[in-house]
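Support case: NDP complex. Customer-provided input:
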Amino acid sequence: MTLDRYAVIGNPISHSRSPAIHAEFARQTGEQLSYEALLAPLDGFRDAVERFRRAGGRGMNVTVPFKLEAFALVERCSPRARAAGAVNTLAFGPDGIFGDNTDGAGLLRDLVHNLDRPLEGQRILLLGAGGAARGGLLPLLAERPASLTLANRSVAKAHALAAAFRSHAPDVALDACGFIDLTGRAFDVVINATAASLANEAPQLPPGLYAANALAYDMMYGRGDTPFLAAARNDGVTQRADGLGMLVEQAAESFLLWRGVRPDTAAVLAALRRQLAGE
Ligand code: NDP
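Agent response - structure generated as follows:
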């Protein structure tokens, strides 16, 4: 029997956990598929996708740095991909290439797992204005938080992002500012969607940002306590989470789109955590 082929494409790609995650989803659900990692040259994304599709590929996950190129490539896309302006999931069908963005839904599902209350009515602070922040905005706004504040090192980018998304949720107080402007404010959920943790740094935040019982969430994963999470711990924040759950949840959302079945993520996440702890 020939297996349906899927792949994750990026540059670099050897570090990707997606093949292991999808192999486990397939085993668990009994779906007959293969999933590989494809390294595309920085100027060769389109060609690599086309080659994989012509060879019978059914779908792909897209990772750094190709999510914007993937958005430009697709013939049709989901509203959440259009809002994000970025695509992390491709599905190849008879009527062309469909693009989706499952990062935001993955973030949301993992936040819900980590938070002991609904997001509705919460004061959310989203740090960063890059691709990850863009992907998270629409799903977060749909939860009807009391407020959503976008803060970024380059303040103009935060303002532009807030302006682009305000019409999606006119009843949510959506504002934008720089890190220093956060002085004196408090939040129930603080999400680090900056790339600072990749450089082993934390965004330069004023003290006292966390309300009682707040959650500190870093989208970065695989580095143990990031400087952002360590700073939150020093501020007395007891609810802290990294982005490993988001990674597994966004993968599950892609799997659902391709195969019509939602895998159980809890066991896969636990196994991945054990594996990372042993490395
Ligand atoms: P981008 O490169 O698109 O965005 C970078 C953002 O980080 C910008 O807002 C930039 O600010 C800010 N930034 C970079 N360095 C610093 C710093 N030292 N201090 C403060 N702000 C900084 O990256 P992505 O949005 O794609 O990724 C962001 C993070 O999210 C990464 O850590 C990535 O690993 C993680 N991620 C996790 C996923 C998961 O499944 N868990 C999925 C996707 C992303 P400025 O505009 O001023 O340059």
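Residues 4-101+245-277 form a domain with the Rossmann fold fold (CATH 3.40.50.10860).

Case will auto-close in a few days if no follow-up is received.
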